[in-house]
Amino acid sequence: MKKLFIAMVAVLALASCAGKKEAASKSIVIYYSQLNSTKAVAEQIANKLDIPIVAIQPVVPYDDDFNATIQRGQKEMNGELPEIKPLDVKLEDYDVIFLGYPIWFGTYATPMMTFLKNADLKGKKIVPFCTFGSGGLNTSVNDLKKALPESEILPGYGVRAARLDAIPTEVDYFLKSNGFLGGDYNPLPDFSAQAPASDEMKALFHAAVDSYGMIRAEAESVCERAIPGGKEYFFTAREAMGGTIQVYVVDPDNGDPVFTQVVR
Ligand SMILES: Cc1cc2nc3c(=O)[nH]c(=O)nc-3n(C[C@H](O)[C@H](O)[C@H](O)COP(=O)(O)O)c2cc1C
Predict the structure, then answer these.
(1) Residue 77 is part of a domain; what is its CATH number?
(2) Which residue of 33, 202, 234, 240 could cross-link 216, Cys pair, CB 3.0 to 4.6 Å?
């Protein structure tokens, strides 16, 4: 009877761990969020992996007013970084750090810069995640690689603040497809070959980006793939100011097309 009980406990323990990979046991989420969008992603990751989560906090909080934060952020980018409160975390206890930040001026926000300047992240695996108005995942990841040459920067996840309802599904896919979380997922197909954008595709592009206001561009070429519940497009577009951008657009079966990320 006792043996049977021990066996049952062992099976239950295995079952409860089955969704989480071994890497999760030495992982932590460290994030900065001014307006809670990045916090929402951070909490989703920490909950799914059942790992600790710590917030970076500036000593002097940012003003709620957007323009005031822009002005202060710009000054900090060009001058002295903001002070942050000491973090109650022993970094040496962790080997994987999920590092979250809002995109400010195309890269990670200045409180995260302060953290990176002072933290010893040598030899750690860094998994970046961010939220943004239009994009900045790739540029911020490139900056992380430069700032942390002795860390391993893994593929990251980014989402527009306007699409926070997509977080649960996308974070689940991100964690599973990168091996942090066990369980089934359907890998997305590759995109088709890039082809010149038809008038219909140009109209779809406009429908997806025009309401954002800060993207003034014309679609030149596009490729596509099927995704659950719709189609995803990857446009190359010429900006009115000159230069090229790449834009991911999702066109749901039920609903209007939205852009999910601009890549510069
Ligand atoms: C100072 C500042 C600069 C910003 N710069 C960018 C930018 O360059 N690109 C962008 O897409 N969004 C930019 N944003 C928008 C934020 O990235 C976006 O609102 C983000 O989701 C905020 O995250 P949080 O709620 O975690 O603070 C900026 C916001 C602020 C306050």
Answers:
(1) 3.40.50.360
(2) 240
107 and 201 part of one domain? no
Identify the CA nearest to 226 among candidates 186, 178, 259.
Answer: 186
Q: Report the atom number in ligand 1 closest to the C-alpha of 37.
A: 25
**C-alpha atoms less than 13 angstroms from C-alpha of 3 in its C-beta half-sphere:** 0
Encode 116-130: b = buried (16+ Cβ within 10 Å), e = exposed.
beebebeebbbbbbb
Spatial contact of 171 and 7, defined as CB atoms under 8 Å apart: no
254 alpha carbon – ligand 1 mean position (Å): 29
Question: Among 132, 212, 260, which is best to mutate for testing ligand 1, by the most ligand atoms less than 8 A from CB?
Answer: 132
Q: Tell me which residue range forms the domain holding 216.
A: 195-263
Whose alpha carbon is nearest atom 4 of ligand 1? 104
The residue among 116, 147, 177 that closes a domain is 177
Give the pLDDT confidence of 16-55 residue by residue, as tens digits: 444 555 444 599 999 999 999 999 999 999 999 999 999 9
Residue-wise pLDDT tens digits, 203-251: 999 999 999 989 999 999 999 999 999 999 999 999 999 999 999 999 9
Say yes or no: 38 and 127 in one domain: yes
Domain presence at residue 5: no
